[in-house]
Amino acid sequence: MQFLVVLHTETDRTDYGVTVPDLPGCVSAGDTLEQALANAGEAILGHLEVMIEDGNPVPEPNSMVPSLGPGQMIGAVKVNLAELEALRETVRLNISMARRTLERIDEAAKLAGTTRSGFLAMAALEHINRRQQAS
User: Most buried in the list 2, 44, 91, 92, measured by CB within 10 Å?
Assistant: First the structure.
């Protein structure tokens, strides 16, 4: 499956931000174009993983190129949905944390349009991906 991505950069910078128009809230970045596209693939898989965990269907990618602004260009990222098959079975767990932390998580999940579980999974995967990229 292939998703169109929008790469964002500024004229005085060499790094890239990435958004995925077909997956609102799915963002990534990279220091180079190649790294930005690779990181976008991981972000897409993570986003789809959360959608599946939340019981949402995986959307079909749209092939329409969105309008671009200054410093933006289109890219395409292929993802292997077979990697997500194992995620269809969810596991229930019990965790403890400070009430205010939980309230902040719930607020952030609501803003992201997902559930508490989905948000925690997405945040954990993003953290794991960042640590793996740093090492």
Answer: 44
Task: Encode pLDDT of 12-70 as tens digits.
Answer: 777 899 999 999 899 999 999 899 999 999 899 889 888 887 778 888 888 777 788 88
Do the beta carbons of residue 47 and residue 23 sit within 8 Å? yes
In the three-class reduction of DSSP (H, G, I as helix; E, B as strand; rest coil), residue 100 is classed as helix
Beta strands in 1-112 (DSSP E): 2-8, 16-19, 27-30, 72-78
Please measure the distance between the N-terminal and C-terminal CA atoms of the chain and give it in whole angstroms.
Answer: 28
CA distances from 67 to 17, 24, 94, 117, 125 (A): 16, 16, 44, 33, 30
- Domain boundaries, given as residue ranges, for the chain: 2-134
> What is the distance between the alpha carbons of residues 36 and 122, in angstroms, rounded to a whole number?
18
